[in-house]
């Protein structure tokens, strides 16, 4: 990697994905109020994919303006069921409601990535995956949440596909990295194109 990539996030998971891919990465969390940015978009007809892009771009630009010359990566993920966008559940009751709403239905995970330098966007991309949850019995949802505990509060869908959450699904269409919040193959291709990565 030609220089260090700045990740505009405190996500240890995204940082680990990048480091495991051989990228020299430093995490510098963005100072962005995501819900305040998203509020005016709620009834504007903005697609869930575009909401993820807008938030990822805001994060990338915020950090790139504070780190002159650095290549900065902003990321965001939305979960959409039709036009409804889900956020991380605030508590176990919200997690239960999320799983009840998703039960037996197909939802999308929209994972946006934006590269910026010196306050200018260089590249943007959204990876989309479709996940079909099996029909879940409400009693099973309660037992499942009791087993996984607070992990259910760490993702927008109240599940972690890389853990016990995989048991909730009938069908998954899409790239694993997109599902876990970082469309890594598209990002690596762009980093090579920019000359930031050997290849």
Short description:
Helices cover 35% and strands 26% of the residues.
What would you note in describing this structure?
The protein has helices at residues 12-20, 34-38, 48-66, 92-102, 138-148, 176-179, 184-193; strands at 5-7, 25-27, 71-81, 84-86, 106-117, 120-133, 169-173. With 199 residues, the chain is of the alpha/beta class. Strands 1, 2, 3, 4, 5, 6 and 7 form a 7-stranded mixed beta sheet that branches. A hairpin with a 2-residue loop joins strand 3 and strand 4. Helix 4 crosses helix 5.
What is the secondary structure topology, with strand pairs?
Elements: E1 5-7, H1 12-20, E2 25-27, H2 34-38, H3 48-66, E3 71-81, E4 84-86, H4 92-102, E5 106-117, E6 120-133, H5 138-148, E7 169-173, H6 176-179, H7 184-193
Parallel strand pairs: 1-2, 1-3
Antiparallel strand pairs: 3-4, 3-5, 5-6, 6-7
Unreliable spans: none
In percent, how helical is the residue content?
Answer: 25-40%
Task: Characterize the overall form.
Answer: globular
Mean pLDDT: 94
Query: How many E strands?
Result: 7
User: What structural class do you assign from the helix and strand content?
Assistant: alpha/beta
The first-to-last residue Cα distance is 10 Å
Strand residue content: 25-35%
Structure characteristics:
single chain; 199 residues; alpha/beta; seven-stranded mixed β-sheet; 7 strands; globular
């Amino acid at each position: 990697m030609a220089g260090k990539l700045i990740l505009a996030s405190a996500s240890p998971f995204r940082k680990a994905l990048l480091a495991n891919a051989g990228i020299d990465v430093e995490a510098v969390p963005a100072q962005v109020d995501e819900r305040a940015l998203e509020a005016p978009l709620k009834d504007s007809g903005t697609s869930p994919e575009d909401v993820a892009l807008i938030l990822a771009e805001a994060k990338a630009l915020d950090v790139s303006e504070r780190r002159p010359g650095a290549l900065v990566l902003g990321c965001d993920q939305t979960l959409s069921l039709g036009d409804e966008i889900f956020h991380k559940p605030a508590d176990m009751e919200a997690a239960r409601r999320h799983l009840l709403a998703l039960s037996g239905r197909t939802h999308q995970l929209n994972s946006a990535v934006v590269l910026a330098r010196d306050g200018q966007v260089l590249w943007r991309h959204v990876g989309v995956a479709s996940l079909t949850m099996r029909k879940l019995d409400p009693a099973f949802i309660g037992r499942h949440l009791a087993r996984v505990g607070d992990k259910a509060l760490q993702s927008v869908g109240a599940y972690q596909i890389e853990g016990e959450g995989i048991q909730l699904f009938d069908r998954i269409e899409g790239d694993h990295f997109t599902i876990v919040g970082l469309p890594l193959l598209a990002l690596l291709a762009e980093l090579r194109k920019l000359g930031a990565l050997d290849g």
